[in-house]
Amino acid sequence: xxxxxxxxxxxxxxxxHVIASAGGGVAAVALSGGSGAAQAFSLxxxxxxxxxxxxxxxxxxxxxxxAHSPLLSRALSGGPTxxxxxxxxxxxxxxxxxxSNQHPHGAIINWxxxxxxxxxFAFIKASEGNYYTNPYYASDVAQAQAVGLYVTGFHFAVPNxxxxxxxxxxxxxxxxxxxxxxxxxxxxxxxxxxxxxxxxGFTAARMVKWIAAFTAEARRLTGQPTIIYTTADWxxxxxxxxxxxxxxxxxxxAYGPTSPPMPSGWRKWTFWQYTSRGQVPGIAAxxxxxxxxRAAVQxxxxxxxxxxxxxxxxxxxxxxSAAARQPTVFTAAGLPRGLSINARGLITGTVxxxxxxxxxxxxxxxxxxxxxxxxxxxxxxxGPSTLSP
Length: 389
Prior knowledge:
By secondary structure, the protein is an alpha/beta fold. It has ten helices and 18 strands.
Protein backbone atom coordinates (compact mmCIF):
# COMPACT_ATOMS: atom_id res chain seq x y z
CA UNK A 1 0.00 0.00 0.00
CA UNK A 2 1.38 3.41 -0.94
CA UNK A 3 2.25 5.90 1.78
CA UNK A 4 -0.57 8.30 0.86
CA UNK A 5 -3.10 5.48 0.92
CA UNK A 6 -1.84 4.28 4.31
CA UNK A 7 -2.11 7.81 5.63
CA UNK A 8 -5.71 8.15 4.43
CA UNK A 9 -6.58 4.78 5.95
CA UNK A 10 -5.08 5.78 9.32
CA UNK A 11 -7.14 8.95 9.33
CA UNK A 12 -10.37 7.20 8.34
CA UNK A 13 -9.94 4.54 11.01
CA UNK A 14 -9.50 7.29 13.62
CA UNK A 15 -12.55 9.09 12.28
CA UNK A 16 -14.65 5.95 12.47
CA HIS A 17 -13.46 5.25 16.01
CA VAL A 18 -14.35 8.74 17.22
CA ILE A 19 -17.76 8.78 15.57
CA ALA A 20 -18.61 5.32 16.87
CA SER A 21 -17.49 6.20 20.41
CA ALA A 22 -19.65 9.32 20.24
CA GLY A 23 -22.67 7.15 19.55
CA GLY A 24 -23.10 8.31 15.97
CA GLY A 25 -24.44 6.11 13.22
CA VAL A 26 -22.08 7.15 10.44
CA ALA A 27 -18.95 5.16 11.25
CA ALA A 28 -19.53 2.83 8.33
CA VAL A 29 -19.82 5.80 5.99
CA ALA A 30 -16.52 7.16 7.29
CA LEU A 31 -14.71 3.89 6.74
CA SER A 32 -16.14 3.53 3.27
CA GLY A 33 -14.65 6.88 2.32
CA GLY A 34 -18.00 8.13 1.02
CA SER A 35 -18.22 11.70 -0.23
CA GLY A 36 -20.19 12.80 2.83
CA ALA A 37 -17.91 11.16 5.38
CA ALA A 38 -15.73 14.17 6.15
CA GLN A 39 -18.76 16.44 6.45
CA ALA A 40 -20.56 13.95 8.71
CA PHE A 41 -17.45 13.62 10.84
CA SER A 42 -17.12 17.39 11.20
CA LEU A 43 -20.78 17.82 12.10
CA UNK A 44 -20.64 15.02 14.69
CA UNK A 45 -17.65 16.51 16.49
CA UNK A 46 -18.99 20.05 16.20
CA UNK A 47 -22.20 18.91 17.87
CA UNK A 48 -20.23 17.29 20.69
CA UNK A 49 -18.12 20.42 21.15
CA UNK A 50 -21.21 22.67 21.17
CA UNK A 51 -22.70 20.99 24.24
CA UNK A 52 -22.96 23.32 27.26
CA UNK A 53 -19.85 23.21 29.49
CA UNK A 54 -20.27 20.73 32.35
CA UNK A 55 -21.56 21.94 35.71
CA UNK A 56 -19.33 20.53 38.45
CA UNK A 57 -19.68 21.34 42.14
CA UNK A 58 -21.97 24.21 41.24
CA UNK A 59 -19.42 25.78 38.86
CA UNK A 60 -19.94 25.95 35.09
CA UNK A 61 -16.63 24.78 33.59
CA UNK A 62 -16.56 27.28 30.76
CA UNK A 63 -12.82 26.91 30.07
CA UNK A 64 -12.91 23.27 28.94
CA UNK A 65 -12.58 24.15 25.25
CA UNK A 66 -9.47 26.24 25.84
CA ALA A 67 -5.94 24.90 25.97
CA HIS A 68 -4.97 26.96 29.02
CA SER A 69 -6.38 29.40 31.58
CA PRO A 70 -7.58 32.86 30.48
CA LEU A 71 -5.00 34.50 32.73
CA LEU A 72 -2.13 32.65 31.12
CA SER A 73 -3.46 33.13 27.60
CA ARG A 74 -3.58 36.89 28.21
CA ALA A 75 -0.04 36.82 29.62
CA LEU A 76 1.19 35.09 26.47
CA SER A 77 -0.76 37.32 24.10
CA GLY A 78 2.21 39.68 23.82
CA GLY A 79 4.02 37.01 21.84
CA PRO A 80 4.33 37.16 18.07
CA THR A 81 1.42 36.31 15.78
CA UNK A 82 3.80 35.23 13.03
CA UNK A 83 5.02 32.00 14.56
CA UNK A 84 7.29 30.92 11.69
CA UNK A 85 10.71 32.29 10.79
CA UNK A 86 14.19 31.76 12.15
CA UNK A 87 14.49 29.86 15.43
CA UNK A 88 16.37 31.43 18.35
CA UNK A 89 19.75 29.92 19.13
CA UNK A 90 18.34 28.05 22.12
CA UNK A 91 15.65 26.24 20.08
CA UNK A 92 15.86 23.27 17.72
CA UNK A 93 12.24 22.99 16.56
CA UNK A 94 8.81 24.58 16.80
CA UNK A 95 5.47 22.98 17.66
CA UNK A 96 1.91 23.81 18.70
CA UNK A 97 -0.73 22.92 21.27
CA UNK A 98 -4.42 22.83 20.50
CA UNK A 99 -7.79 22.20 22.12
CA SER A 100 -11.42 22.18 21.02
CA ASN A 101 -11.37 25.96 20.51
CA GLN A 102 -8.93 25.54 17.62
CA HIS A 103 -11.92 24.07 15.74
CA PRO A 104 -14.22 27.13 15.52
CA HIS A 105 -17.68 26.18 14.22
CA GLY A 106 -16.43 22.64 13.69
CA ALA A 107 -13.52 23.59 11.43
CA ILE A 108 -11.09 20.71 10.92
CA ILE A 109 -7.37 21.33 11.39
CA ASN A 110 -5.42 20.68 8.20
CA TRP A 111 -2.49 18.90 9.78
CA UNK A 112 -0.76 18.49 6.43
CA UNK A 113 -0.46 22.27 6.17
CA UNK A 114 0.81 22.44 9.74
CA UNK A 115 3.56 19.92 8.94
CA UNK A 116 4.49 21.61 5.67
CA UNK A 117 4.89 24.89 7.55
CA UNK A 118 7.72 23.26 9.51
CA UNK A 119 6.08 22.36 12.83
CA UNK A 120 7.50 19.14 14.29
CA PHE A 121 5.35 18.34 17.35
CA ALA A 122 1.92 18.90 18.84
CA PHE A 123 0.42 18.81 22.31
CA ILE A 124 -3.33 18.14 22.14
CA LYS A 125 -5.66 18.70 25.09
CA ALA A 126 -7.15 15.35 26.01
CA SER A 127 -8.95 16.02 29.27
CA GLU A 128 -9.65 18.34 32.17
CA GLY A 129 -10.25 17.52 35.82
CA ASN A 130 -12.39 14.39 36.11
CA TYR A 131 -15.28 15.67 34.00
CA TYR A 132 -14.21 16.61 30.44
CA THR A 133 -12.68 15.00 27.37
CA ASN A 134 -11.91 16.84 24.14
CA PRO A 135 -14.15 15.48 21.34
CA TYR A 136 -11.51 16.35 18.71
CA TYR A 137 -8.64 14.68 20.54
CA ALA A 138 -8.51 11.25 18.88
CA SER A 139 -8.90 12.55 15.34
CA ASP A 140 -6.31 15.31 15.86
CA VAL A 141 -3.79 12.82 17.24
CA ALA A 142 -4.30 10.38 14.36
CA GLN A 143 -4.10 13.03 11.67
CA ALA A 144 -1.09 14.80 13.19
CA GLN A 145 0.81 11.52 13.48
CA ALA A 146 -0.18 10.53 9.94
CA VAL A 147 1.66 13.55 8.52
CA GLY A 148 4.76 12.91 10.62
CA LEU A 149 4.36 15.10 13.71
CA TYR A 150 5.34 13.79 17.13
CA VAL A 151 2.29 14.07 19.35
CA THR A 152 1.02 13.64 22.88
CA GLY A 153 -1.99 14.54 24.95
CA PHE A 154 -2.06 16.91 27.89
CA HIS A 155 -4.33 16.96 30.91
CA PHE A 156 -5.52 20.26 32.40
CA ALA A 157 -5.29 19.67 36.13
CA VAL A 158 -8.05 20.78 38.48
CA PRO A 159 -6.63 19.61 41.83
CA ASN A 160 -9.73 20.43 43.89
CA UNK A 161 -11.89 18.20 41.67
CA UNK A 162 -10.24 14.88 42.53
CA UNK A 163 -6.97 13.34 43.73
CA UNK A 164 -3.78 13.43 41.71
CA UNK A 165 -3.77 9.66 41.18
CA UNK A 166 -7.43 9.62 40.10
CA UNK A 167 -6.88 12.41 37.58
CA UNK A 168 -3.83 10.59 36.23
CA UNK A 169 -5.99 7.51 35.72
CA UNK A 170 -8.60 9.65 33.95
CA UNK A 171 -5.97 11.36 31.79
CA UNK A 172 -4.21 8.18 30.68
CA UNK A 173 -7.50 6.45 29.94
CA UNK A 174 -8.86 9.24 27.77
CA UNK A 175 -5.54 10.08 26.12
CA UNK A 176 -5.41 6.39 25.10
CA UNK A 177 -1.69 6.63 25.74
CA UNK A 178 0.47 3.95 24.17
CA UNK A 179 4.23 3.75 23.74
CA UNK A 180 4.33 3.39 19.97
CA UNK A 181 7.55 5.13 19.01
CA UNK A 182 5.78 8.33 17.91
CA UNK A 183 4.14 9.52 21.14
CA UNK A 184 5.89 11.92 23.48
CA UNK A 185 5.27 11.41 27.21
CA UNK A 186 1.93 12.54 28.62
CA UNK A 187 1.89 16.18 29.76
CA UNK A 188 0.37 17.67 32.92
CA UNK A 189 -0.85 21.27 32.64
CA UNK A 190 -0.74 22.62 36.20
CA UNK A 191 -1.41 26.37 36.35
CA UNK A 192 -3.82 29.17 37.24
CA UNK A 193 -7.32 28.10 38.25
CA UNK A 194 -9.87 29.33 35.67
CA UNK A 195 -12.70 28.79 38.15
CA UNK A 196 -11.61 30.37 41.43
CA UNK A 197 -8.65 30.79 43.75
CA UNK A 198 -5.31 30.66 41.89
CA UNK A 199 -4.01 27.66 43.85
CA UNK A 200 -7.37 25.83 44.02
CA GLY A 201 -7.55 26.44 47.78
CA PHE A 202 -4.48 24.24 48.38
CA THR A 203 -1.49 24.92 50.59
CA ALA A 204 1.91 24.57 48.92
CA ALA A 205 2.55 21.27 50.71
CA ARG A 206 -0.79 19.85 49.62
CA MET A 207 -0.22 20.96 46.01
CA VAL A 208 3.22 19.31 45.89
CA LYS A 209 1.67 16.11 47.22
CA TRP A 210 -1.06 16.27 44.56
CA ILE A 211 1.44 16.75 41.71
CA ALA A 212 3.62 13.92 43.06
CA ALA A 213 0.61 11.58 43.14
CA PHE A 214 -0.31 12.47 39.54
CA THR A 215 3.20 12.05 38.13
CA ALA A 216 3.82 8.78 40.01
CA GLU A 217 0.56 7.26 38.79
CA ALA A 218 1.08 8.48 35.22
CA ARG A 219 4.55 6.97 35.21
CA ARG A 220 3.23 3.68 36.58
CA LEU A 221 0.65 3.50 33.81
CA THR A 222 2.77 4.71 30.88
CA GLY A 223 6.32 3.82 31.91
CA GLN A 224 7.38 7.40 31.08
CA PRO A 225 8.12 10.51 33.16
CA THR A 226 5.52 13.26 32.87
CA ILE A 227 6.09 16.52 31.00
CA ILE A 228 5.07 19.32 33.40
CA TYR A 229 3.56 22.52 31.97
CA THR A 230 3.59 25.53 34.28
CA THR A 231 4.92 29.05 34.84
CA ALA A 232 7.56 30.32 37.26
CA ASP A 233 5.00 32.64 38.87
CA TRP A 234 2.34 29.97 39.49
CA UNK A 235 4.97 27.50 40.68
CA UNK A 236 6.29 30.00 43.23
CA UNK A 237 2.82 30.93 44.46
CA UNK A 238 1.30 27.46 44.63
CA UNK A 239 4.14 25.01 45.35
CA UNK A 240 6.35 27.28 47.43
CA UNK A 241 9.11 26.93 44.82
CA UNK A 242 9.24 23.14 45.19
CA UNK A 243 12.37 21.51 43.75
CA UNK A 244 10.90 18.01 43.81
CA UNK A 245 10.18 17.58 40.09
CA UNK A 246 13.43 18.46 38.35
CA UNK A 247 13.72 14.96 36.87
CA UNK A 248 10.55 15.54 34.83
CA UNK A 249 10.75 17.44 31.54
CA UNK A 250 9.63 21.07 31.83
CA UNK A 251 7.26 22.77 29.41
CA UNK A 252 7.41 26.37 30.60
CA UNK A 253 5.04 29.14 29.54
CA ALA A 254 6.30 32.71 29.32
CA TYR A 255 6.31 35.53 26.80
CA GLY A 256 9.75 37.00 26.31
CA PRO A 257 12.27 37.70 23.56
CA THR A 258 15.24 35.77 24.97
CA SER A 259 14.61 33.12 27.62
CA PRO A 260 11.78 32.31 30.03
CA PRO A 261 11.95 32.65 33.83
CA MET A 262 12.45 29.18 35.28
CA PRO A 263 10.43 27.49 38.04
CA SER A 264 12.49 26.18 40.95
CA GLY A 265 13.80 22.67 40.50
CA TRP A 266 14.72 22.99 36.83
CA ARG A 267 17.92 24.34 35.35
CA LYS A 268 16.70 24.12 31.75
CA TRP A 269 13.49 23.90 29.80
CA THR A 270 12.61 21.17 27.31
CA PHE A 271 9.68 23.04 25.76
CA TRP A 272 8.99 26.78 25.96
CA GLN A 273 5.56 28.13 25.03
CA TYR A 274 6.21 31.70 23.94
CA THR A 275 2.93 32.90 22.41
CA SER A 276 -0.80 32.22 22.58
CA ARG A 277 -1.67 33.98 19.33
CA GLY A 278 0.28 32.23 16.64
CA GLN A 279 -1.17 32.16 13.15
CA VAL A 280 -0.41 28.71 11.79
CA PRO A 281 -1.33 27.47 8.29
CA GLY A 282 -4.14 24.92 8.43
CA ILE A 283 -5.65 26.22 11.70
CA ALA A 284 -8.60 28.63 11.61
CA ALA A 285 -8.01 30.07 15.09
CA UNK A 286 -4.99 31.55 16.85
CA UNK A 287 -2.87 28.90 18.51
CA UNK A 288 -0.22 28.43 21.20
CA UNK A 289 3.29 27.88 19.84
CA UNK A 290 6.29 26.39 21.65
CA UNK A 291 9.97 25.78 21.05
CA UNK A 292 11.81 22.51 21.65
CA UNK A 293 15.18 23.18 23.26
CA ARG A 294 18.41 22.64 21.40
CA ALA A 295 19.90 21.58 24.74
CA ALA A 296 17.44 18.68 25.10
CA VAL A 297 17.09 15.14 23.79
CA GLN A 298 13.55 13.76 23.67
CA UNK A 299 13.51 10.05 22.86
CA UNK A 300 10.19 8.44 22.01
CA UNK A 301 9.45 5.16 23.77
CA UNK A 302 9.00 2.33 21.22
CA UNK A 303 7.14 0.29 23.84
CA UNK A 304 7.92 -3.17 25.17
CA UNK A 305 8.91 -5.66 22.47
CA UNK A 306 8.22 -9.39 22.10
CA UNK A 307 10.02 -11.37 19.38
CA UNK A 308 10.08 -15.08 18.63
CA UNK A 309 13.43 -16.76 17.95
CA UNK A 310 14.26 -16.43 14.28
CA UNK A 311 12.50 -13.07 13.91
CA UNK A 312 14.28 -10.50 11.77
CA UNK A 313 14.21 -7.16 13.57
CA UNK A 314 14.09 -3.65 12.14
CA UNK A 315 13.05 -1.17 14.84
CA UNK A 316 13.69 2.57 14.63
CA UNK A 317 14.03 4.43 17.93
CA UNK A 318 12.97 7.99 17.17
CA UNK A 319 13.82 11.27 18.81
CA UNK A 320 12.45 14.77 18.49
CA SER A 321 16.06 15.93 18.37
CA ALA A 322 16.70 13.94 15.20
CA ALA A 323 13.42 15.19 13.69
CA ALA A 324 14.74 18.70 14.30
CA ARG A 325 17.90 17.70 12.37
CA GLN A 326 20.16 17.81 15.38
CA PRO A 327 23.11 15.42 14.99
CA THR A 328 22.38 12.60 17.41
CA VAL A 329 24.33 9.38 18.04
CA PHE A 330 22.52 6.38 19.50
CA THR A 331 23.84 3.52 21.64
CA ALA A 332 22.02 0.71 23.44
CA ALA A 333 22.58 -1.56 26.41
CA GLY A 334 20.78 -4.80 27.18
CA LEU A 335 19.67 -5.74 23.67
CA PRO A 336 18.96 -9.46 23.10
CA ARG A 337 21.83 -11.37 21.58
CA GLY A 338 21.93 -11.03 17.81
CA LEU A 339 20.64 -7.45 17.76
CA SER A 340 22.54 -4.21 17.44
CA ILE A 341 21.79 -0.51 17.06
CA ASN A 342 23.42 1.86 14.59
CA ALA A 343 24.33 5.48 15.23
CA ARG A 344 20.97 6.65 13.86
CA GLY A 345 18.91 4.56 16.27
CA LEU A 346 17.96 1.67 13.99
CA ILE A 347 17.93 -1.71 15.76
CA THR A 348 18.47 -4.67 13.41
CA GLY A 349 19.41 -8.33 13.50
CA THR A 350 17.91 -11.77 13.89
CA VAL A 351 16.82 -13.07 17.29
CA UNK A 352 18.48 -16.43 18.10
CA UNK A 353 16.91 -19.07 20.34
CA UNK A 354 19.77 -18.53 22.77
CA UNK A 355 18.41 -15.03 23.50
CA UNK A 356 15.35 -16.41 25.32
CA UNK A 357 14.34 -14.39 28.36
CA UNK A 358 13.44 -10.85 29.34
CA UNK A 359 15.93 -8.13 28.49
CA UNK A 360 15.96 -4.68 30.10
CA UNK A 361 16.99 -2.41 27.21
CA UNK A 362 18.14 1.19 27.50
CA UNK A 363 18.71 3.29 24.41
CA UNK A 364 20.75 6.47 24.84
CA UNK A 365 21.16 9.37 22.43
CA UNK A 366 24.05 11.85 22.57
CA UNK A 367 24.34 15.24 20.86
CA UNK A 368 27.68 16.81 19.86
CA UNK A 369 27.31 19.26 22.76
CA UNK A 370 27.25 16.36 25.24
CA UNK A 371 23.52 16.39 25.99
CA UNK A 372 22.07 12.91 26.53
CA UNK A 373 18.63 11.37 26.73
CA UNK A 374 17.53 7.79 27.23
CA UNK A 375 14.51 5.53 27.09
CA UNK A 376 14.10 2.08 28.65
CA UNK A 377 11.84 -0.81 27.71
CA UNK A 378 11.63 -4.59 28.03
CA UNK A 379 12.38 -6.96 25.16
CA UNK A 380 10.98 -10.47 25.68
CA UNK A 381 12.16 -13.48 23.70
CA UNK A 382 9.99 -16.50 24.54
CA GLY A 383 11.77 -19.74 25.35
CA PRO A 384 10.41 -23.23 24.61
CA SER A 385 8.49 -23.36 27.90
CA THR A 386 6.72 -20.04 27.27
CA LEU A 387 5.65 -20.68 23.68
CA SER A 388 2.03 -21.61 23.13
CA PRO A 389 1.55 -25.20 21.86
